[in-house]
Structure formats: C-alpha cells, structure tokens
C-alpha cells in the first residue's frame, strides 16, 4: 500500500516522456467522438482562458465563497493547482469553515506563484476541476 503522496513522488521521478506516453490515451472512444461530430453542437460553451491580468485578493475571496456556497469539490481544484492530499488536510486542520480552507489554499498558491500570478492559470485550473461557471463569473468572461 502506498498513499497519494508516495505515488506522486514516484511519478515525478520517472522520465517525463515515459509518463506522458503512459497517460496519453483517449478517454472517450473514437466512435463516440465521431458520432458527436454529426450531432448539433451543445449550447454550453466554455470560454478559453484569455485573461492576462494578475489575480486579485477579491477574486480569490469570491472563488472561495462561491465554491463553498455551492458545495464544490475544492480539493480537486487544489490538485489542479499542484497541492497534494496532505496539503488539503493541513488547510482543513487550520480552519473549520470550508470557505476559509479554500481561501487559504488559493492564497498559498498565489504566494507560491508570485504577486503577479496571471488569472489565466487559475481560470484553467477552475475549468479543469469542473468550475467553469465560477471561473466565467469571477473573471467576467463572455463568449
């Protein structure tokens, strides 16, 4: 038995081309992809991250508030921002309220990235973790 942190540490030690070749596989079968091309496009659109301005504290607070209010899986976002399971447990240990756990995670991420962290990095992580609606709302993206 190994935990998540041990697994991630092991993966990071492998050559990147080996990891990429292992993880580069289609999730959706080709016949489903082909069939979807014949269907009319969905009305749900995802805005591409285009914002190049720095992330503000107000935006971090709003993301934390929205994710908490909507009971979103903030740990998935944390994973997309480079945090491990033990990091999430640390945030939970320091704060009893979920919005404070999320806010601290976002603030720690911003400090690691630097004061001029581009909004596009956070937008991408939000979208990858299933929070496109929050990303679009907070960063006022339109399409």
Topology, element by element:
Elements: H1 4-13, H2 16-23, H3 30-38, H4 57-69, H5 74-80, H6 85-94, H7 98-113, H8 119-128, H9 132-138
Task: Note down, in words, how this protein is organized.
The chain has 143 residues and is mostly helical. The protein has a domain of 68 residues: Death Domain, Fas, CATH 1.10.533. It contains nine helices and no strands. The radius of gyration is 17 Å and the shape is globular. It starts with a helix and ends in a 5-residue tail after the last helix. The mean pLDDT is 81.
Task: Name the descriptors.
single chain, 143 residues, mainly alpha, Death Domain, Fas, 63% helix, globular, DEATH-like_dom_sf
Radius of gyration: 17 Å
The profile of the biggest β sheet is: none
CATH class of the domain at 74-141: Mainly Alpha
**What's the helix-strand series?**
HHHHHHHHH
Mean pLDDT: 81
Question: In what range is the share of β-strand residues?
Answer: under 5%
Ranges where pLDDT stays below 50 over 5 or more residues in a row are none
Discrete helix count: 9
Quaternary structure type: single chain
Distance between the termini: 46 Å
Percent helix:
55-70%
Bulk shape? globular
Structural class: mainly alpha
Pfam families: Death
Protein name: Death domain-containing protein
Domain Death: 73-142
GO biological process, one term: signal transduction
